[in-house]
Amino acid sequence: MRAFTVERYGSKDGVRAGDVPEPEVGADDVLVRIQAASVNPLDRMIRDGEMKTILPYKVPFVLGNDLAGVVVEVGAAVTRFAVGDEVFARPDKNRIGTFAELIAVHQDDVAIKPATLTMEEAASLPLVALTSWQALVERAHIQPGQKVLIHAGSGGLGTIAIQLAKQLGAYVATTTSTPNVDLVKRLGADVVVDYKKQAFEAVLRDYDVVLDSLGGETLMKSLDVLKPGGKVISVAGPPDATFGRELGANPVIRLVMSALSLRIRRAARRRNVTYSFLFMKASGDQLRELTPLIETGKIRPVVDTVFPFESAREALEYVEAGRPKAGKVVVRMT
Length: 334
Ligand SMILES: NC(=O)c1ccc[n+]([C@@H]2O[C@H](COP(=O)([O-])OP(=O)(O)OC[C@H]3O[C@@H](n4cnc5c(N)ncnc54)[C@H](OP(=O)(O)O)[C@@H]3O)[C@@H](O)[C@H]2O)c1
Fold this sequence. Notes:
- The chain has 12 helices and 16 strands.
- The chain has helices at residues 41-47, 119-123, 126-139, 156-167, 181-186, 200-203, 216-222, 241-247, 251-260, 262-270, 284-295, 312-320, and strands at 2-6, 15-19, 29-39, 61-62, 67-74, 86-89, 102-106, 110-112, 147-150, 171-176, 191-194, 207-212, 226-234, 274-277, 303-308, 328-332.
- The strands form 3 sheets. Strands 3, 5, 6, 7, 8, 15 and 16 form a 7-stranded mixed β-sheet that branches.
- The chain binds NADP nicotinamide-adenine-dinucleotide phosphate.
């Protein structure tokens, strides 16, 4: 089958479209003929070898972390899906490879595609929608009336996180650049800070939760907008020891992770708030929880551009160069 693979870590030239063997289908797997797959910043990080400690894929491997497509075969133990079902998924982190004609995915990680969406729209959602759910529902337990700051509101993650936070009843602030101010307001943001013109930490106060996807100084300054007891959840900051434990990392790696996050954890403690790192997980159940919100239009996908499979490399470079105006970039497989 045709697939877009990483042959060599660390460079734009280490990837190529080529032929690879078709996946084997385990008893609990569904085999999906992929129709669309979206691009995430994670793809570039994997390509460049930046994630090797967490995701030690052996080259060559197929890239891609999101999919929408049609079930063409089911394993002997599969109960939830049948041939012909239209599905969407973020496969488990140890079984990626959605820039391909086919992928075998564990049935627990798959959900029926929202009926109202095209394949391209559905493929844009799983990774960012699951991240939003795991940050705002699972970890932050957002309650109606709570104040939430979502950084980078126009990004793949931000566009969905704003909409989910509004559905949870939160009062939502976001940061974005001038051309995207109207877009994030339409998505539901109550307060928009144009980071080209204003420092968010100078205008926002007493927030319950910050969802950070920028890391660095933005993460550090985010502590200042929280009320005592508040939480900053970062998907781009340093990993912490809890994440190391979840990952099953050895004690040395856990110690390194703990050391990497020492500065931000100490700064958080001084302000009586908490810092935690989140690395999202695959979950068909959570996609099923999100589906009614999607089918009723309460969460709408934002797709910037669709590239054909032959241009997967260009799609990655387009995202890497920060050229999308807002939302997600999708690769059409068929
Ligand atoms: N750990 C996890 O599980 C996990 C999950 C999802 C995402 N992530 C990470 O989260 C990050 C964002 O992901 P994404 O998919 O949303 O990326 P993306 O689609 O590339 O969006 C990035 C956005 O950042 C905005 N931006 C840049 N500088 C900014 C600033 N100073 N203040 C506010 N916004 C700024 C840009 O918006 P403007 O055009 O408005 O400038 C852009 O839309 C990536 O690093 C990704 O790897 C991690």
